[in-house]
Amino acid sequence: MEMIPVRTWAFRINAVPKPQPRQRSAAYLDNAGRARSSRPYTPAKHPVNVFKAAVADAATVQFEGQPYITGPVHVGLTIVLPRPRSLTREWKSTGRVPLIKVKGDNENFEKAVYDAMEGIVYDNDARIYSNFTESWYAAEGESPHTLVYIEERAYQPAIEERPPDGRKRKRDQGPPQGQAETAEAIL
After folding, report:
1. pLDDT value at position 161?
2. What pLDDT does 130 receive?
3. What per-residue confidence (pLDDT) applies to 182?
4. Which pLDDT does position 165 carry in this prediction?
5. For the chain (length 187 residues), average pLDDT per consecutive 10?
6. Residues in contact with 38: Cβ distance below 8 Å, sequence separation at least 6, in sequence order
7. Among 55, 57, 105, 164, which is least packed, fewest CB within 10 Å?
8. In sequence order, which residues have a C-beta less than 8 Å from that of residue 48 and are 6 or more positions away?
9. Which residues pair with 2 in a beta bridge?
């Protein structure tokens, strides 16, 4: 089976990208003071929450009035971070420079974006079966942002091949009787 695009969307998030931090846990104690369960959380004042709110706002505008994507999803991200001052001396280029020195890798940026779009674009980010992410420092004069490309895909059944006699052949059955497969016959 082959995956074919069904619908595509693209939008820009005009906010400084922030990576998703490691989750913290809050323990719930019983009457004897023993931990009974824990709940993961992100601190309310963490800067990633502002970024996730900007992602959710942009996704809401793009997907307003549309149902969740119910099929497999491919997501492409282009993350453009603020250009540090030290970069001007190291790289003589005034264009975008590949991201090489930063806290937070691509997976943490992806997690922040995917979590923010959950409940707006799709019901669960487990629908994302493939992705592509690139990270850059901004060109001189360029503002930090994130570009999101979303593609809903569907399965296209493979075309079934039939032998010359028109009969359907099982895979492990081999060639029809009277036709021996030899290297010469195949070539």
Report:
1. 59
2. 93
3. 47
4. 62
5. 82 92 70 71 78 95 91 94 74 74 79 94 92 91 94 76 59 52 46
6. 25, 26, 27, 28
7. 164
8. 18, 19, 20, 21, 42, 112
9. 156
Looking at domain 2-22+41-158, its CATH superfamily turns out to be Holliday junction resolvase RusA (3.30.1330.70)
Q: Which pTM value belongs to this model?
A: 0.72
> What is the reported pLDDT for 183?
44
Cβ density class 29-44: b for 16+ within 10 Å, e for less: eeeeeeeeeeeeebee
Say if CB 71 and CB 154 are below 8 A apart. Answer: yes
Listed by start position, the domains of the chain span: 2-22+41-158
